[in-house]
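Backbone geometry:

***
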Amino acid sequence: MSPLARTSPASLRIALRRTPKQTRGFGLHHLKEHTEHHNMPFGYADKRKFGAKYAGAAVTFFSVPFIAVGYQLRKSSGAV
């Protein structure tokens, strides 16, 4: 038997009557504290500096696989 079939119609009506005001929050944060986000492990107040660091990291991380492939190709051609 399903759980909905075992539930009484009166409790279903009460559950459907609830408004969002009646739902309870967990009280983890207040609305004013939640508007500011300071959860990044780095600062980006200086946008040019942040852009240069981001571009440098992106180029480095993107080029690593190509450097590894070039190294492996040179290594295998020298062994033949």
About this structure: Residues 30 and 36 are 11 Å apart (CA to CA). The two ends are 72 Å apart (CA to CA).
